[in-house]
Amino acid sequence: MKRPRRAILCVGILANVPLLLLLDEPSARGQAVDPQLEKILADWQKRQEWVKSIRYRVSGKYTIPKGVFNSQRRILGLRIDKDYPSKDMSVDVKYTLLLDFENGRHRFERDEPQYFLDVDRFCAHRQTDVFNGSTMKQQWLKPNDPSISPEMTPPPTNPDVPNATIISGNMKNNEFELKYRPIFFGHGRVYTIMDPIIPGKLLTKPDPDYFSVHGNAVHEGRNCVIVRTQTLRGYKTSFTEYWVDIERTSAIVRTIGFSGDKPGSVINIQYKKTSVGWMPDRWKYMAYPEGKVARIEDMHVVEMTIDPHVSDSDFQLVFEPGTIVEERKDEGTPNILVTPKSTGRVYRLEEANKQVDIPDAYGRKGFRSPSPAVSRHLFIWIGLLPLVLCCIAIWVYWRKKHYSFISRNVRP
């Protein structure tokens, strides 16, 4: 067997020195593909043809263990004699995801509370994302939104922080998070570092050069083939492992993300037979950022609607007056590993769709600063200035002549 080749990628600059990463490609191009891998990739491609569109309603529970954020106490200036969180905490989460595979569009409505260290509790976070095939719009609730209950109200923030975005160009910064990938696995869309799941690329053909068969295992009583992605060698070696149940149209039943020699995340997925085939039904996501469990998400599909009717209005989002909008364009990059640069502006939306530019609350480079507002009264004074100067000159002349007359006619 040929030795795997490596591609050297320059992905950034650190202290003026290029940061080089080595990308191990499990199979060299042109080399024969393992028959098991060939079957798996064919099944994943087949899954991509099962539906044209689909809507998922998903709900579950998000749990974080006691003290998991203690390492951040000093950084954030919090009490070092207190655990963060102070106890094991759980909260209900839910979301609805509409995927229009045929046109590369999606609508994502989330109700996923977030944990805030400074108040040691979960706070409300509701967000809607829509992608119409070219532009991404997002909106989330402001901390002072009246629909938020007092016990879920987030800490106050700068009122000029945007609560909506309009994004065009490169969609790399809007990649679907790891915890949502089980849905995409059901449709044969499998993540690799060189092929992330981003808006507009809901489906792509699996590339055999990014995968290799690593072995076999048994998961929940079923035989699986272990498939690994290419290895990224930087500060730490990282790769993803997929456990595949070939007998169920190569369903991914377990995925492990490795950082170094330890797992950084694990997702176990259960499937059910549907009218189109084996689809994800339940999954448990566990994250291990520092070698111990930092979060657990136990999710299940409440409802799955196959090929629902979709219209352009499903992928539109209208902002109300008072919304602080960040409108930006993310530039293209030499390769997918480079974070895109952004240019844009921030404005307050007012009545009649009037846009009033305001300074970017984060002071980001590339964001346009509003021109200083010039009062219309200033223009009036500028116009009147010659007349005022003329009047002053006449008054001075009159005073001078007046006092000169008095001094000549007044006797001692």
Question: Can you give a write-up of this model?
Answer:
By secondary structure, this protein is mainly β. The N terminus is likely disordered. The strands form two sheets. The chain has a 19-stranded mixed sheet that branches. Helices cover 14% and strands 39% of the residues. The chain has two domains: 294 residues, outer membrane lipoprotein receptor (LolB), chain A; 36 residues.
Features:
21 strands, two-stranded antiparallel sheet, elongated, 19-stranded mixed sheet, mainly beta, single chain, disordered N terminus, outer membrane lipoprotein receptor (LolB), chain A
CATH class bucket of the largest domain: Mainly Beta
Largest sheet: 19 strands, mixed
State the CATH architecture of the largest domain: Clam
Report the C-alpha radius of gyration, rounded: 30 Å
Report the total helices: 4
Number of strands: 21
Morphology? elongated
Question: How far from one another are the termini?
Answer: 125 Å
Order of helices and strands: EEHEHEEEEEEEHEEEEEEEEEEEH
Helix-strand category: mainly beta
